[in-house]
Amino acid sequence: MSGELVIVGLGPGSAGLQTAAAAAALAAASDLVGYGPYVDRVTARPDQVRHVSDNREELARARHALQLAADGRRVAVVSGGDAGVFGMASAVFEAIEHGEAAWRQIEPEVIPGVSAMFAAAARLGAPLGADFCALSLSDNLKPWAVIERRLRAAASAGFVIALYNPLSRARPWQLGAAFDLLRAELPGTTPVMFATAVTRPDERIDVAPLAQADPARADMRTLVLIGNETTRYIAREGRRPFVYSPRSAA
Ligand code: SAH
Q1: 224 lines ligand 1 (CB under 6 A)
Q2: Helices in the chain by DSSP H: which ranges?
Q3: Residue in 74, 91, 82 with CA at minimum distance from that of residue 10
Q4: Using CA atoms, how far apart are residues 245 and 128, in angstroms rounded to an integer?
Q5: Beta-carbon neighbour count of residue 146 at 10 Å?
Q6: Which residue from 80, 124, 128, 176 puts its CA 20 to 30 A from 114's CA?
Q7: Contact yes or no for 165/138 (Cβ under 8 A)
Q8: Residues of 164-189 as b/e, b for ≥16 C-beta within 10 angstroms?
Q9: How do residues 158-215 score in pLDDT, each as one tens digit?
Q10: Mean pLDDT throughout 207-232?
Q11: Cβ distance 36 to 139 under 8 Å?
């Protein structure tokens, strides 16, 4: 008998930004599958089985979840933010496409979540009010040349840009290279927003002009937003500035 498979976006961190649908799906699960820190965010009951795996094992984790569901379990695959934004939902569908025929009879449900770019933008004001795009700076899964091409195209087309996975210990230079590339396309005054661990206790938000943006400010828990030519910066005495992108283009 086939069980159930839900792919759950847990939101950026705080309980308040986890949706009611996510909470209900997690409560209904017999098995929780995911990267350790995400599974740790779920308060599992003693009867729920936790299957924790390493960050780089997304496809193997997806196959395992599908097999558990095919065996009749009620499986929740958990992902941070939104499960479809650089998350586990793609891995599950990739595993279905290339996996066992029986897996196509499973009806996976994707529960959307609040992606890091929305949580970060909400803290800053409204930087995503104009047309925007999202890019992962990780070159683990695609060549760096592709990332450069997309960054250049996004900047020259006037998109506000959300950068996920800006750097990590294994990828220390990528954000600096991205800033160098963007400085050739955009004015030095363009606001660059660093939003780290948004909605978590160690949250930190900073804004700097592109000319002075320091890639060392970011870590793997940071979402970087780059404004476009319309993005406004409102300085405030002793308080965090507001940043917004007007809906009307120049
Ligand atoms: N599916 C997730 C993104 C996973 S990729 C989502 O929709 O948010 C992992 C990247 O997301 C991190 O490197 C970081 O850039 C960003 N991120 C995730 N949670 C974050 C948070 N609470 N604050 C800031 N950035 C976060």
Answers
A1: no
A2: 20-28, 36-40, 58-70, 88-98, 116-124, 144-156, 174-183
A3: 82
A4: 6
A5: 12
A6: 176
A7: yes
A8: bbbbbeebeebbbbbbeebeebbeee
A9: 999 999 999 988 899 999 999 999 999 999 999 999 999 999 999 999 999 999 999 9
A10: 97
A11: no
How many Cα atoms occupy the beta-carbon half-sphere of 129 within 13 Å? Answer: 17
Q: Is the dihedral of CA 209, 212, 215, 217 positive or negative?
A: negative
Does residue 223's CB lie within 6 angstroms of at least one atom of ligand 1? yes
Cβ(172)–Cβ(138) below 8 Å: no
Distance CA 218, CA 232 (A): 22
pLDDT value for 59: 95
pTM over 0.90, yes/no: yes
Query: Which string of b and e fits 2-14 if b means at least 16 CB within 10 Å?
Result: ebbbbbbbbbbbe
Asked whether 87 lines ligand 1 (CB < 6 A), one says: yes
For residue 250, the model assigns a pLDDT of: 61
Please tell me the distance from the alpha carbon of residue 116 to that of residue 197, in angstroms, as a whole number.
9
Rounded Cα–Cα distance for residues 46 and 178 (Å): 46
- How much is the pLDDT for 249? 79
Please give the Cα distance from 106 to 70 (Å, whole number).
7
* Ligand 1 binding pocket includes 122 (Cβ within 6 Å): no
Asked whether the predicted pLDDT for residue 154 surpasses 60, the reply is yes
Residues 41-51 pLDDT 10s:
999 999 999 99
* Closest Cα to atom 5 of ligand 1: 86
Ligand 1 centre and the CA of 111: distance in Å? 17
| 85 Cβ inside 6 Å of ligand 1 | yes
